[in-house]
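Work Package 3 (structural annotation) set out to generate three-dimensional models for the target panel prioritized at the project kickoff. During this period the team completed the workflow that converts sequence records into discrete structure tokens, so that structures can be stored uniformly alongside our sequence database. As a representative example, we reproduce one entry of 561 residues exactly as it appears in the project archive.
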Amino acid sequence: MAVSRTRARTASAVVLAAALLTAGLTAVPAMAEDPPLEWSTVAGYPKSVNEVTVTWQTAMSSTTSPFGGAELQEPLPLIRADFVNDSGETKHFGLGMDLTVQGVVDPLWELDTWGVSDEAVGGFIDTFWLSLDPGESFSTDEGQGNVWSMALPMWTGHTLRIFELSEPPLDGATPLVTTLDSFVVPGRFVGANLENLVVDDISALIGERATVDGGGGSPDLFPGLSATATASGLTAGEQLELWIAPDLDYFYFFLLGGGLPVNATHVGTDIVAADGSLTADFTLPASLPFGAYQLVIGDSAERYWPAGSYGDFLVTEPPNAESAETQPGADTADIPLGSTSASITYPATASGGTTTVTVTGTGPAPDGFQLAGGDIPLYFHISTTATFTEPVEVCFTYSTANLPGDPPWLHHYDSVQGRWFNITTTREPGRVCGSTTSFSPFALGFPDTFDFEGFFAPVSMAEPNVAKAGQAIPVSFSLGGDQGLEVVTSAKFVIEGTDANPAGELLDAVTAGRSGLSYDASADRYTYVWKTDKAWAKKTGQFVLTLSDGTTHTFDVSFKK
């Protein structure tokens, strides 16, 4: 079976792609000697194919990486190959691996695989073919590389293949190629990105880029921070873990088998959306040491890492942090933050302590609202040494010159529940307050517009609504999913005007008993049970529902006795 494919790739891509293999292959001489590896022959081997004895062997390293000696959380699975020429004539062999597409094995000895001249790779591809005399073994040949007879990481989902060549691939010769044997590593596949490679971004050779939300700029990261990691181009429905580790490099981490170092920290888990995107919230441990980190996303048990940060991010002292002291009992910490200020009022049962507010551009991605923008800080991370069990009032004062118009709402991210909540209690131009029982982070923002649908039966949007005064009316609608139970700002009944009172009468539309607002996930329906008044008999008017996104929704109704 002849194997020949051509790819248009830049010379820089080739050099880096060569590094993809040679970094792992040439790292082997530095292999840790303690303890020695215990190799096991794969079931079904050795076996004879076309007068060649083929053997695959596997081993588990200790928790010391055999490639450089780093301490790992778990032993690393390794593989090596050997084959012996049992014929009476010289045979020629080539090595292959699926670099970019799972199962599509690249002939690594061919220039067309790399897309450049022989000079560009400096004879590198010659390490992927060799000739064996009768009786000679791959593992004992001292001529050309012997690369796969050494220990290699078991790259999950990849195929390693040995080919027999009709002649040496020298001086432009195009030998006939026959598959001799293959070994497929179980697991999911992550391919190399050899197209459109960025020369100065070697991590882009592997997987997809993961980023940390930084408000459009470089993230400000510090211990205790909550933020969001994003990635795209992933497989929908996969549940993936988020890990961070100091002094990690996603490219070499993946290349050397994907074994997590002992100082890696699991910070979150989330599921890839239907469009292949991942938006995962995480919180950095409060005890996290300062330093340079990278983020990797995948499955630690399988060593499957389809995404990672392509560069370091720094974990440092909290930037722009301001503090104030409070005394035991009801007390307020007033903290100036440039053009904004924070006021945190503790209940009478609180202890005293130090309250710190850090202003940053990094935090969990907004969900259900847009950040206020303008010259208002994006995120306020609040922490305190004070203890409290009852609600605390948090207020932010801002300049209306920086944010004119309607005041924003105050949102708080609950790291335990992993979601944002609108905690607003009062809002007026220049000042917004909310009530909370936990801290960090907070954000000022405006609600997204809900995907409203309704109203549903028994309310009709096509026919006149006639109801008996005093009855309870279930007012049902959909907002395109569960948006929480804080979505209703107000509900009013506006009675039609008369000659004596042309403006009509505006009344609160109270709920029936404790029924309030409820949400049925199976039907994706909200229901607001409206308790009407017997005094409205023979009255006609309009029910007006105002939602937290600022929109109003109405229906007309007439009441009979």
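Residues 81 and 148 are 6 Å apart (CA to CA).
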